Amino acid sequence: QSVLTQPPSVSGAPGQRVTISCTGSSSNIGAGYDVHWYQQLPGTAPKLLIYGNSNRPSGVPDRFSGSKSGTSASLAISGLQAEDEADYYCQSYDSSLSGYVFGTGTKVTVL
Amino acid sequence: QVQLQESGPGLVKPSGTLSLTCAVSGGSISSSNWWSWVRQPPGKGLEWIGEIYHSGSTNYNPSLKSRVTISVDKSKNQFSLKLSSVTAADTAVYYCARAPDTKLHAFDIWGQGTMVTVSS
Lengths: 111, 120
What we know:
The structure holds two protein chains of two kinds.
Chain A: E1 9-12, E2 18-23, E3 36-40, E4 47-50, E5 64-69, E6 72-77, E7 86-94, E8 99-102, E9 106-110
Parallel strand pairs in A: 1-9
Antiparallel strand pairs in A: 2-6, 3-4, 3-7, 5-6, 7-8, 7-9
Chain B: E1 3-7, E2 11-12, E3 18-25, E4 33-40, E5 47-52, E6 58-60, E7 68-73, E8 78-83, E9 92-100, E10 109-110, E11 114-118
Parallel strand pairs in B: 2-11
Antiparallel strand pairs in B: 1-3, 3-8, 4-5, 4-9, 5-6, 7-8, 9-10, 9-11
């Protein structure tokens, strides 16, 4: 069972803004460890979407943004597009587990 | 551009040992990066298995540590995973991934993944 909790699913119409939460604890996000986000399109490997809480790798549209506060982090997708339909995972480090942990994952559906 | 490619048997018998290799191309495994294994059971989320540095230093997921060995072969520019005493619960897509040796430690490059089924 993951120590980072995400909503199982979120949905929105094209052009809308959706947000995905990632709730952790004092041993991971709350301890100051960075949060990264990955996008996994159906049948493919995960792709780094946001690193260091709010930074986008080269090539990632600025429609994607990340933030972190306290023991939680969020990923926002603005101007939702059909191609954004995928699974999204947050990831951090947990000092109690002494290892890297992923969130439970969120499926984004474009209505 | 660095690319990763997993290889190994797609079927392993229960109680046996799962062995996979990740070939690194377009760059050196001796660069300042950690090399990881991550797995994903069918229809489920991602689980970090462990990582290795070119020096041989390793870190493992405590829940799998007793069964996992990750090694590096600098001459072949590849690293490997061995998971012993496998059960059906180890059936998953196994990915290798790279994380630069910085405080951020994000998995920035991934292999395409290889499906491993544990079954008799």
